[in-house]
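Methods — Computational structure assignment.
A single polypeptide chain was analysed. Its primary sequence is given first, followed by the predicted tertiary structure written as structure tokens.
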Amino acid sequence: MNNIFFSYGHDEHKDLIIKMKDYLSKNGFDVFLDSDKLRAGDDWEHKLEVAIGSHQKFIFFITPYSARRPDGYCLNEIAMALVHKKNIIPVMIDFEIPPLSIVRTQYLDFQELSKNDSLSNKINDELFETQMQYLVDVLKGEKEIDTDGVQAKLFSDLKPIDFTQDFAKHKKLIGREWVKDKITTWIDENPESKVLWITAEAGYGKSAIAAHLANRLKDVIGIHYCSYNFDNKKDPLNVIKSLAFQFQSQIPDYIKYIQQVEIENKNVYELFEELILNPLSYLKTNKTYIFIIDALDEAANDDGENELANLIRDEFSKLPSNIKIIITSRPEPKLKQKLSSFNTSSLDTKDEENISDCKDFIKQGLIENGYSENYSNNNFVSTLMERSDANMLYLTQFFEGIKNSTIDITHPEKFPKGLNGIYERFFERITKDDDEYDEKYAPVFEVILAYEQPIPKLLLMDIPGMRLKAFKRITTKLGSMLKENDGMIELYHKSLSDWLPSDDNESFIVDVEKGEEKKVSFMEKLTPDTYKKEYLSFFDFNKMLVDNMYLIDSTLTPFFSLFENQEDQKEIIDLLMELWWYFSLHEKLYKAIAIGKKTLVITKPLYHKNSNRWAGYYTQSLNNLAHSYSNTNNIEEAIQLEEESLDILEPLYQENPDRWAEYYTKSLNNLARSYSDINKVEEAILLEEKALAIREQLYRESPVRWAEDYTTSLNNLALSYRITNRIDEAIQLGKKALAIMEQLYRENPDRWAEDYTTSLNNLARSYSDTNKVEEAIQLEEESLDILEPLYQENPDMWAEDYTLSLNNLALSYRITNRINEAIQLGGKALAILEQLYQENPERWAKYYTQSLMNLAFSYKQTNNILEAIQLEEISLDITEQLYREKPNRWAEDFINSLNVLALSFYKNSDVLQAILLYEKGVQELRELYVANKLWAEKLINSIDNLIYLYNETGNSDKVKELEKEIQEIKGDE
């Protein structure tokens, strides 16, 4: 059932929330709204937690009241949702910066719904219907929230670390309000002080305090949790990138300073300067911003060196005075040396504030476990305080021990002494004798400690003698000492990993060297096949693909090192390439780029180590990533990769044509396509002719095997010939391709529909170029008849082909004066592409702007100039923005949009506006011409247009000036 929990602030937007709830209910969703479900006298917190846990989706409505009210309950509801690993969908109703705990999740922007009509004071019903239908599509999984916008690209580039579980495990905190007061005092009384280092011993609850501050201090803009057993949480590069991503979600204008930062190939100090120091310095504000780094002591590497602490020591004092950094850690001597210049606040378990908080924690724990009546007396509390040394971690484990019967509450005099005592008591209760511990439990801890990072739980099955039933029983018994998340297992707290191999642990020895031996044994036996079947399958693989790049990072990448000396490395590369294909197919373009980069990083050293063995994988990795770059209009980056691929494949093909023909010809065509995108058509033709010659020979030898590649080459070269006015040659190639494809399509329509309709449209365009428009229409109508039902059945797959076919036929109808039919087809294509463009601008900008211009031309033929101008202005706005971002890619589209709109204004008798647009185009073309003389012809044509208009206005001086410029350009040529 589609059931949803609504989390919202009880503010002026409640009527809108109720209306949204009613809409979803009518559309088959079961919505939990507290005002409907809860009654006076209910245990609200318990009922809400049960409701959150039992509902599949969690919608958080962001308003100033819900997102930033320090004592508001919505933040607690988010924490509960994180604990239960719910799918949180933020919906922005009234702008407020989202809570840090969900900054990795894009929000739906419904702010327009909260702006009531000033006359009727009612919500706009048409807008409401549109927005709610989009929400329904998101809830059903049919659409995603912004996966290809600016933030999505930043997400891909910066790879912010997922701290969901760090926030979730600290959802409850007893007391600690006084820590906020300490921080406020420090800020007020030390305006020039930038870093506050809070130290406390293990078990004090520093991480819980950090999470509490992140949720409750309104000025906190970022948090990083270090972790001794997560390499990515120790790496200062990752810290900087993750904080930068959080900052851009919390600080207005920050994003514009980091959008263009080149992330790759920067060291820690360079990246800190470009992503943190400079952007924060550029912000013109006196507002206080705070970020938190928790458990700095756990960022040390195996050698005890702490690179993150070095960065803090060297660079953090350079930050502006309005930036405040709070660091928590244990008071380790090495850190004291590095951070001695910063303000230090030492928290002691014997402080009155801590003692008070611990007593409150005990009373709350007794209530939750049903013991409050008999045990909440001062004697019991005092005994427990004495035994715990006022340590929060001890108290947490104490109540866990009560629940799992390792501690008997009726005998306070037998309570374990200190945190180490808690651990000893736990192991005493779960083991019957020393042999049982040595044989069953110690090996588990030895393996976990040896890996020094979370490992797949099923990896423990590799321990010699371990059987499935014993494995389940042992891991269940060890439950409170282990922490499991998404199938990865680790020790629940660093204090346990410190105690197990230490001299303080006399009875339950853990030999880490034995764990290292088992680790080596496992690595020797592991193959990619067993990894995929036994370990990777432990995850919900589909969810990993769609939602979580971090899981891909944390599972595939570490395990790849296990195959360093084995031929079976290709299994992991194949898996990454499958992921790349999946993301590309589903238009998750920046995820495809991230996977493409990862694959390239893995295949490059393999190729340089053994070029013959890995050339195919490496060049395929180059071309995959280039394809993703092309789809995001990063043509220059694509060309660089494709040229490298071709340089590798050319000599390989010459040496062994049979082995390398497929790779080589694909590489030729890929580079040719990119050259065409930047108007290097002659260069593209040379490559395409070379590819076609090879494929034609191969097709003759094996038609079934090479039909698709051969016809692709025929159509590619035909298109390039058309661009260079070699129309007869284009028609000849197009006919060849169509004859092959028609036969294949008749035999197997499902398999060959796309290729056949592509050939129909390509040949039709060539016919149009020679004024054989009726022949073109016949082919285009056949193409549209095929594509229309395919699009209706699967819009996502066929939208590009269908809209292209609509626009092609509309153009042919326009040429033959069937204008009304042309407008009908053009309008249908534009409606589809407008929606696609709104959802994914980068993917659909080219097709949307072309469709706008196509329909505008049809309107102009019916003298509807104003309707045409309206469409052309939209196209110009889009192409100009894209041109400013990527001049080489979008120059021609932008200049064309300027000239077309200028002509429309001229036809509408607005000569001055036409002159302004032509002047703007000429100025842009002058700059392009200085950089590349190939723009000479277009520049001359635009100047000629200006001369014509200035003649009409009688501006002879301007005419002479422009005529002189044309002569100078021709002289240069």
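Note: Residues 623 and 642 are 6 Å apart (CA to CA).
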